[in-house]
Amino acid sequence: MSQSPTTERPPVALRTEALEQILVERGLVDPAVMDAYIRTYEQDVGPMNGAKVVARAWTDPDYRQRLLDDGTGAIAELGFKGSQGEHIVVLENTPTEHHVVVCTLCSCYPWPVLGLPPNWYKDPAYRARVVREPRAVLAEMGLSLADDVAIHVSDSSSEVRYMVLPERPEGTEAWSEEQLAAVVTRDAMVGVATVSATQ
After folding, report:
1. Of 2, 4, 83, 107, which residue is the catalytic one?
2. Of these residues, 106, 144, 158, 196, which one is catalytic?
3. Is position 154 annotated as part of the catalytic site?
4. Domain for residue 176, yes or no?
5. I need a labelling partner for 13 at 20 to 30 A (CA). Which of 57, 70, 79, 84 fits?
6. Residue 103 among the catalytic residues
7. Residue 149: inside a domain
8. Which entry of 2, 4, 83, 108 is annotated as an active-site residue?
């Protein structure tokens, strides 16, 4: 039986916390293990993988072209593949075109290269507004683009997920792949930020 529209449900965070508490009490989940797993996907494995892909594309023109032609295949060349990454399309930002990614239905996201989606990516306000007013949403998130830069919004789905190849920052021409990867952020690969050489 479905709930009526007027029935109040606890916020997702409270329901999640209650479920976790039950699982911990029954000895089915170790909270330390779960925290480490989530932290790894949010901060390390995923975004670090994507940063390596971007750095390779910035330093290897042949790889960059393969990445733009067949994102999934080129990403797999570096060993990054798996669930939620079966079909990844890579979109290149340029001085005149800027791509930003959203999933308007839920939170489809390329886990192998970006890890778990951040909370703001799953937020209904972001999902609805970035499609209608991307320039305003990006500005609110700290990215102001010139009026002559065209903004393209790509909607991820269960069939295809998108990743942004951000512009390489000026002054990094002599940098190694490792140095470049260190300044690439998750947000730049979603398109809500740019990459700075001083990050």
Report:
1. 107
2. 106
3. no
4. yes
5. 84
6. yes
7. yes
8. 108
pLDDT in tens, 166-199: 999 999 999 999 999 999 999 999 999 999 998 6
**Contact status, residue 182 vs residue 172, Cβ threshold 8 Å:** no
* pLDDT score recorded for residue 108: 92
Look at residue 115 and tell me whether its pLDDT is greater than 70. yes
User: Residue 2 pLDDT more than 60?
Assistant: no
CATH no. for residue 47? 3.90.330.10
Domain assignment of residue 18, given as a range: 12-190
pLDDT in tens, 14-71: 887 888 889 889 988 888 888 877 776 666 567 999 999 999 999 999 999 999 999 9
Task: Look up 107 and say whether it is catalytic.
Answer: yes
The 3-state DSSP composition of the chain as helix, strand, coil percent (nearest 5) reads 50, 10, 40
Structure tokens at 150: 């065209």
User: Is 4 in the active site?
Assistant: no
Q: Does residue 195 lie in a domain region?
A: no
Pick from 56-65, 81-90, 116-125, 167-176: least confident: 81-90
Q: How many domains does the chain have?
A: 1
Q: What span, in angstroms and rounded, lies between the C-alpha atoms of 90 and 33?
A: 33
- Integer-rounded Cα radius of gyration of the chain: 19
Name residue, tokens 């050489």. 197
191: left (phi over 0), alpha (psi -120 to 50) or beta: left
